[in-house]
Structure formats: structure tokens, C-alpha cells
Amino acid sequence: MLSERSPQLVGRAPAFLQALTLIERMARYDAPVLIVGETGTGKELAARAIHYQSERRDAPFVPLNCGAVPETLIESELFGCERGAFTDARQARSGLIAAAEGGTLFLDELDSLPLRAQVSLLRFLQDYRYRPVGGTRECSGDVRVVAAASPRLHELLQTGAFRDDLAFRLNVLLLEMPPLRDRPGDARVLAEHFIARHARQHALPPRALAPGCVDWIARYAWPGNVRELDNRVQRALLLSDGEELDLRPCGTGMSHAVRSTSDVPASASDLRAFNDARDEAMLHFERSYLEQLMHSAHGNVTHAARLAGKERRALGKLLKKHGLERNTFDAPN
Ligand SMILES: Nc1ncnc2c1ncn2[C@@H]1O[C@H](COP(=O)(O)OP(=O)(O)OP(=O)(O)O)[C@@H](O)[C@H]1O
Ligand SMILES: [Mg+2]
């Protein structure tokens, strides 16, 4: 059984095994870690693995989604505040650094951290001392900082929207989580892992992957990475019948009406950085549009291009990006 405390990281592709080796080594030390990777590549899972493999495992792992907290509140979230620091701060409140004492502070979506908070974080990382907002008392925090960012961090550094001194301080240990498309064989291994896991969870009989979809799994680009694979497995498992499971967009029992997770209202702690959420929504839109389009055109790309008002070549590229094959749509159904 998977547990939140010791997450199971599944995969055997060389790029992934290299990341696992780094995680194991990084767990031995206390230096800050920066985890960079596309959406759904397992950055949070890696951060938890570092914590639970480290000497700090019995102290808390405290996550903060830097994109979900209003800019004005980030510093008091991190450092706490003294009584009267704000009009509504009637009592002193300790922050997440204090909550993570002895453990790990996980700064998720670091690329969304506003510039002012970047300065405060940098100051904290220099000597691990800080002052709660509105106070003069100096505190010290025994925490290890592990941060996660999307690859857009590189652009933000170039444009100056992210401070390079903070990036230098954080990426003493840099862990790059590889996208699923660069992990040959892993999509299938993970698909089988998720089938077994969700079948158990929902008390359903485990099912084998449909032979026709195995090849597709290996060729599909998985823009949403492991999370997308997990979602596809769950959807197929819950919404289709039969002996075999097909993860392809128009596979057995796949419903176009299924809402994606991005349609479900998120709680504040689940909120994502705007750009990441937009990119994911865009990918979702593209995919469901293309599926419907190709369905209507019965797999005829020229006809589909005409219907969509796009160049045939451009449409072909989009279809390839989403791993959609024209012959899947041949027969009207
Ligand atoms: N190697 C893996 N083995 C098993 N499950 C995995 C693996 N990698 C990711 N997952 C699962 O995929 C989902 C996404 O992982 P996670 O939340 O760690 O990704 P992330 O990089 O933080 O994504 P985002 O950038 O969107 O926040 C989670 O449900 C996680 O449990
Ligand atoms: Mg994450």
C-alpha cells in the first residue's frame, strides 16, 4: 500500500534511475534542493522522498504553494507575525518555518514567489535567522528547504522576474525530473502500476492493457506527464467495461463528456500557478477539440483541416503532438 509518508517512485528508465540516485544522495545532506520539471513529472513526490529518506524524517514535511498565497501574506505565512502586525492580527502567530522545525519546508511553485518574498527568503537562507512580521525578535529555524519550479524558471531568470542570487542559493543541489517522453518504457510500467493501485482502491478486478494501446502509450508525448497517465488510467478503469483497458482517447468506453480535473474547483491549497494552470487547460482543450474534430471528419486529416480552418500541415503537427492517429477515427461510431 502506498503511503503519503514514504511515496513509491515507480520507473526504470535510465533518466529516472539517475534522478532516484540523486534523491538518495541528496537525502544525506542538509543543503537546499531545487527540483525542476514539467507539470506532473513527480516534483512533489521527489521532495517527499528526499525528506523521508533523510535524518529529518521524523520531523514534519511542510509544503507551501507559493502561487496560492496572496502576495501580501506570504511573509507572514513563512515567518509568522507578532500581535498587531496587521489590523486583523489579534494574536501572534507562528509561521511555516516554525511548523517545519527540525524537518523540511517544501516551497512548491517557487517560480510564482513574488519578488519581495524572494528577498526575504534569500535573507533567511543566508543564516537561517528571521524576524516574524511586525516584530523585532529574532528567531532561528532549523529547516531544510526544498523548492520545486517549472522549467519556466529559466525564462524568469533571464528576464529578471526571478532573482538569480536566490536561484544560486537554492540550486546547490539541482534535481531535474525528466518528462515521461524521455523515459522509454516507463509509461507502460507506470500504467500497470496505476491500474493495480486504482483497481485495489476501488475494489475492481485488475485489467490488462489492450494490446493495441501498448504501442500508443509508448509513442504518445504525455504532455501532462505522470499525472495525465494516472488520470487516464483512472478514467478508463472507472468508465469502461471489458477485459482489457484502453487508454487511447477514443478507446473503448472513453467518454468525451468526462470533465478533466482542471474543471473541478480547487481548494486554496490546490491552486496552481496561473501559467501552469493555463498551459494544462490549453492542452486539455487542444486534445478534446482534436478528438471531436477527427471524429467528425472520420479520420480524414484534409477534411478535418478544412472543418477547423487550419492548414493541413499544422493540424498534422498538432495531432502528432497529442499522439492522435487518424486510423483511430476511421469508423463513425
Ligand atoms: N515515479 C512515479 N511513480 C508513481 N507515481 C508518480 C510518479 N511520479 C509522479 N507520480 C504521481 O503523479 C502525480 C503527479 O506527481 P507530482 O504531484 O509529484 O508532480 P509535480 O511535478 O509536483 O506536478 P505539478 O508541477 O503539476 O505540481 C501524483 O499523483 C504522483 O503520485
Ligand atoms: Mg506539484
Overview of this structure, please?
The structure is a single chain. The protein is of the alpha/beta class and 333 residues long. The chain has three domains: 14-178, Rossmann fold, CATH 3.40.50; 184-255, Helicase, Ruva Protein, domain 3, CATH 1.10.8; 258-333. Helix content is 43%, strand content 10%. It contains 13 helices and nine strands. It has helices at 14-26, 43-53, 74-79, 96-99, 115-127, 153-159, 164-170, 186-201, 211-219, 225-239, 274-296, 301-308, 312-321; strands at 33-36, 61-65, 104-108, 129-130, 139-140, 144-149, 173-176, 208-209, 244-245. The strands form three sheets. It has a five-stranded parallel sheet. Helix 1 (14-26) crosses helix 2 (43-53) and helix 5 crosses helix 7 (164-170). The chain is elongated, with a radius of gyration of 23 Å. The two termini are 39 Å apart. The model is unreliable at 251-270 (pLDDT under 50). It binds adenosine-5'-triphosphate and magnesium ion. Adenosine-5'-triphosphate (ATP) is lined by residues 9-11, 37, 39-45, 226-227, 230.
